């Protein structure tokens, strides 16, 4: 019963994203659709916010199927060019295998893959060992904490949520800026919601196209999951993201390397609210307890904290807990501020240093305005490898104008090493057999539904180190949900 309720809650999001029938029905019913971000931002009724609309410009662009595992689109020469360059650069370590078997469903790490993994952690596989320091010298360390004392790194995954206005209003009213990790599928489904993220002054990073376990995907799929999400964000929000967070934290040196080749720094977390689990029946009081535990650590650490823009529950519990967080931590800042990343994007938008931010300059200079922001299908999207990014205050080399220090700051071997490599690694092998077909996944309607439900259900494990039993039960729950959703969607 509970499952059915959850599933029904998901139906509008799925249908809006991927069902043509649903769109036609809406047209037939003559519902008025919003036309721009400013209009959308003015709606506060959650059901109204989530009504389907279409941005004509975006509709003219090609993207992978919503909620499906992305692969490079037929005839997308730009994408092939970038991908070929990354492979040739030799950054992808050839010894790191795809995790799990060929039959992996990409929605969990099998017990087998976990238990047979070499305990010395040659791949720096976070899901197994929580490793954040790559073994490969060519890849920078993950960012997972703030270097400033008494600081809470404010991050929300899984947006843009169609019904986030009340939450974004709350952030505005409390002068909060966060790092938002957006899912490509949702950026394309809810472009005006995504535009509000940047015009409100938050910083935007990539959270993949379809929210799968990235270590289970082929090289080319990993590339496409990141590439098309960043491309969608560029077209919709006007910025080229240079940071990303792996769903479930599932990353190893192969996946990190592809992200680095695309110019994206990997960001994890140090503390986890587990807020997603309210949607699956965990009592809210448990999550309140989690927040309180993190609050109690304020004098020991400055964690980047994992929370979600996933549902009214997760957005609501943050609002409920905010005053206590504020009492516990002197500073609540986005990652740009906590790392002095003043230039997170190649575009001309400047974010505040930590000092400036806590001094009250919370808005980036030259950010786009909600009354004029438009989707730009012709926006040039040209990713540059982390190793080739120059200039201070980038994710490749954080530290703002004063020059950074600290364990995660920039001038490590990764940001300075040239991308020229000794060996043209064989890492491309696993993708070389990928034909240019986009149909790498069989397209049943069940698969259609599964993506979105994965994004929701499975955020579940953003946190968990995917250990066997819990992983299995989530998988079972996942299939139950999928079945319920499919049933619901076609009623
Ligand atoms: C894929 O398509 C691109 C251009 O459309 C082409 O250059 C490339 O060789 C193709 N790759 C394969 C594996 O067919
Ligand atoms: C956003 O939140 C609403 C309300 O909790 C939920 O129904 C919806 O599925 C969520 N997801 C997206 C992508 O909007
Ligand atoms: C950020 O910059 C300030 C000076 O504006 C400096 O004191 C601080 O150490 C820097 N922090 C990091 C993490 O780079
Ligand atoms: C940063 O790296 C470059 C290139 O390796 C090196 O020349 C320079 O001295 C380094 N700077 C610092 C502050 O370590
Ligand atoms: C690696 O590949 C590049 C481009 O294909 C080529 O120019 C270079 O000679 C190759 N290097 C080695 C060591 O094979």
UniProtKB/TrEMBL annotation:
Membrane topology according to the record: Lipid-anchor; GPI-anchor
GO biological process, one term: cell wall organization
UniProt subcellular location: Cell membrane; Secreted, Cell wall
Classification via InterPro entries: Glyco_hydro/deAcase_b/a-brl, NODB_dom, Polysacc_deacetylase_ArnD
Enzyme class: hydrolase
Catalytic activity from the UniProt record: [(1->4)-N-acetyl-beta-D-glucosaminyl](n) + n H2O = chitosan + n acetate
EC number, as in UniProt: 3.5.1.41
Ranges of Low complexity composition bias in the record: 408-464
Record's signal peptide: 1-17
Cellular component, GO, one term: plasma membrane
Domain spans labelled NodB homology: 150-333
Keyword Cell membrane attached: yes
Cofactors: Co(2+)
Renumbered residue ranges of the record's region Disordered: 389-464
UniProt KW keywords: Carbohydrate metabolism, Cell membrane, Cell wall, Cell wall biogenesis/degradation, Chitin degradation, Cobalt, Glycoprotein, GPI-anchor, Hydrolase, Lipoprotein, Membrane, Metal-binding, Polysaccharide degradation, Secreted, Signal
Alphabetized Pfam families for the sequence: Polysacc_deac_1
Keyword Cell wall biogenesis/degradation applies: yes
GO MF terms held by the record: chitin deacetylase activity; metal ion binding
Similarity field: Belongs to the polysaccharide deacetylase family.
Protein name: chitin deacetylase
Organism the protein comes from: Malassezia cuniculi
């Amino acid at each position: 019963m509970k499952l059915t309720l959850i599933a029904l809650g998901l139906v509008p999001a799925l249908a809006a994203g991927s069902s043509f029938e649903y769109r036609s029905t809406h047209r037939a019913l003559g519902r008025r659709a919003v036309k721009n971000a400013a209009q959308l931002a003015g709606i506060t009724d959650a059901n109204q916010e989530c009504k389907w609309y279409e941005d004509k410009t975006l509709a003219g662009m090609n993207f992978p199927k919503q909620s499906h595992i992305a692969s490079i689109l037929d005839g997308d020469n730009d994408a092939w060019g970038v991908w070929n360059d990354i492979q040739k650069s030799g950054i992808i370590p050839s010894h790191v295998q795809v995790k799990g078997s060929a039959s992996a469903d990409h929605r969990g790490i099998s017990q087998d893959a976990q238990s047979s993994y070499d305990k010395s952690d040659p791949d720096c596989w976070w899901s197994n060992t929580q490793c954040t320091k790559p073994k490969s010298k060519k890849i920078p360390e993950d960012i997972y904490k703030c270097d400033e004392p008494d600081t809470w790194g404010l991050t929300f995954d899984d947006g843009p949520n169609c019904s986030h206005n009340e939450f974004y209003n709350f952030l505005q009213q409390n002068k909060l800026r966060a790092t938002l990790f957006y899912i490509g599928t949702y950026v394309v489904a809810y472009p005006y919601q995504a535009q509000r993220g940047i015009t409100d002054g938050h910083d935007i990073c990539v959270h993949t196209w379809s929210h799968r376990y990235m270590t289970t995907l082929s090289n080319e799929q990993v590339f496409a999951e990141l590439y098309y999400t960043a491309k969608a964000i560029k077209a919709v929000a006007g910025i080229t993201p240079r940071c990303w967070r792996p769903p479930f934290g599932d990353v190893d040196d192969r996946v990190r390397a592809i992200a680095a080749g695309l110019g994206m720094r990997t960001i994890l977390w140090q503390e986890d609210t587990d807020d997603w689990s309210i949607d699956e029946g965990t009592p809210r009081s448990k999550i309140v307890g989690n927040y309180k535990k993190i609050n109690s650590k304020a004098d020991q650490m400055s964690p980047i904290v994992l929370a979600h823009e996933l549902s009214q529950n997760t957005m609501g519990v943050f609002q409920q807990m905010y005053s206590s967080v504020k009492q516990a931590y002197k500073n609540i800042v986005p990652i740009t501020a906590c790392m002095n990343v003043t230039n997170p994007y190649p575009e001309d938008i400047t974010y505040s240093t930590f000092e400036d931010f806590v001094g009250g300059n919370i808005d980036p200079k030259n950010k786009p305005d909600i009354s004029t922001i438009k989707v730009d299908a012709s926006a040039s999207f040209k990713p540059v490898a982390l190793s080739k990014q120059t200039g201070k205050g980038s994710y490749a080399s954080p530290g703002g104008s004063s020059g950074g220090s600290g364990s995660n700051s920039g001038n490590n071997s990764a940001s300075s090493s040239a991308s020229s490599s000794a060996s043209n690694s064989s890492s491309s092998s696993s993708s070389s057999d990928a034909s240019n077909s986009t149909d790498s996944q069989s397209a049943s309607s069940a698969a259609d539904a599964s993506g979105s439900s994965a994004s929701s259900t499975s955020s579940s494990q953003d946190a968990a180190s995917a250990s066997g039993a819990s992983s299995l039960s989530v998988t079972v729950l996942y299939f139950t949900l999928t079945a319920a959703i499919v049933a619901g969607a076609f009623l």
